[in-house]
Design brief:
CATH superfamily of the largest domain: Nitrogenase molybdenum iron protein domain
CATH architecture of the largest domain: 3-Layer(aba) Sandwich
Oligomer: single chain
Largest sheet: 4 strands, parallel
Radius of gyration: 24 Å
Distance between the termini: 91 Å
CATH class of the largest domain: Alpha Beta
Strand content: 5-15%
Helix content: 40-55%
Number of domains: 2
Order of helices and strands: HEHEHEHEEEHHEHEHEHEH
Strand order of the largest sheet: 2-1-3-4
Shape: globular
CATH topology of the largest domain: Rossmann fold
Number of strands: 10
Length: 324
């Protein structure tokens, strides 16, 4: 075409560069740039909530761009997915979530076009624990608060350092498959994280090995794995919903149990009201303290990350159980 003679060499070079930039941006969005998505060629990872986000950051480090669906301070079980978050899932190279914990996330991930979907619950063995504290595990049929896993399985595996380490190993392998160029780094980072979790497990074993009582009462029945790992007995006031009102029979049973087992403390969590814990503690003349289920880090958390909060939990348990 004659019009081509009107385009200078400089303009042509600029047009080519502009076109290349546009193609690169498009490829990055779809996960095609350098074989990976995310900004600056990083692996684009979307985590469902804090424990998954922490794993992704610790294992991926500089090679990943991590986003989370659950903002700090938001109760993760009640999360509703926005259109923007749905788009983020579609654009992700890896989605890391825990099926059975957040129903809205499960549905969105099932429909997402993400490159790799990693269900953390498949990377370790989930178990069935008493999540209700009472015979009825259903906190309301209509819009009630549910966060038990598939078939009644307890999803709170991150509160057991051993199981969390098992999940970390699986996440490291998944990252290596999604981004083979940095597989060695992911393997190295995973090994370091597993080492730190193993050390944390040892701290819990030593700290809780010889206590005056093995029973603790909490408003949030999230500590079944932790209790089982370290030979403790968790008793939930109202089960999985820390703000659900327990029955009078349950309150009477807990009062009897607290006296029998010499319970000194009623635990509540940072993201929920301490009302129930305060009521039971006041009736029995007990203390209250925090036992954080680590579903999110906020300014109220007793530490800046997973390890700091877990060590704060250990300290509070040692004080409440009466280490000998």
């Amino acid at each position: 075409m004659n019009v081509r003679r009107l385009i200078s060499a400089t303009a042509l070079a600029g047009a080519v560069a502009l076109g290349a930039t546009a193609l690169t941006a498009c490829a990055a969005l779809t996960g095609e740039a350098d074989g990976k998505g995310g900004k600056d060629g990083k692996l684009a990872v979307t985590a469902s909530f804090y424990p998954m986000q922490f794993l992704a950051q610790q294992i991926g480090r500089d090679h990943v761009a991590v986003g989370t669906l659950t903002k700090p301070g938001v109760e993760p079980h009640d999360l509703e997915i926005t259109a923007r978050q749905t788009a983020r899932l579609d654009e992700s190279d890896v989605v890391l979530y825990l099926k059975g914990l957040q129903p809205a996330v499960d549905k969105a991930v099932d429909q997402a076009q993400a490159g790799t979907k990693v269900d953390a619950g498949t990377l370790t063995e989930l178990e069935v624990h008493d999540l209700a504290g009472e015979a009825d595990h259903d906190h309301g049929a209509e819009g009630g608060h549910h966060h038990d896993g598939e078939g009644g399985q307890d999803p709170h595996v991150w509160l057991d350092p051993v199981k969390y380490a098992e999940i970390a190993r699986g996440v490291g392998k998944a990252f290596g498959k999604a981004d083979p160029a940095h597989a060695a780094d992911y393997e190295k980072n995973t090994a370091e994280l597993v080492g730190r979790l193993t050390a944390l497990d040892t701290e819990f074993k030593n700290g809780l090995a010889d206590t005056a009582t093995k029973t603790f009462i909490t408003t949030h029945s999230a500590f079944g794995y932790l209790a089982e790992r370290y030979g403790l007995d968790q008793e939930g006031i109202a089960g999985v919903d820390p703000e659900s009102e327990p029955s009078p029979a349950r309150m009477n049973a807990l009062q009897t149990l607290a006296r029998k087992e010499k319970v000194s403390t009623v635990f509540f969590e940072t993201l929920a009201s301490p009302k129930l814990a305060d009521t039971l503690a006041r009736d029995l003349g007990l203390r209250t303290d925090v036992l954080d289920p680590l579903e999110g880090i906020t300014e109220k958390s007793q530490g800046e990350d997973y390890f700091a909060v877990m060590r704060a939990n250990l300290k509070n348990l040692e004080k409440a159980l009466g280490t000998k």
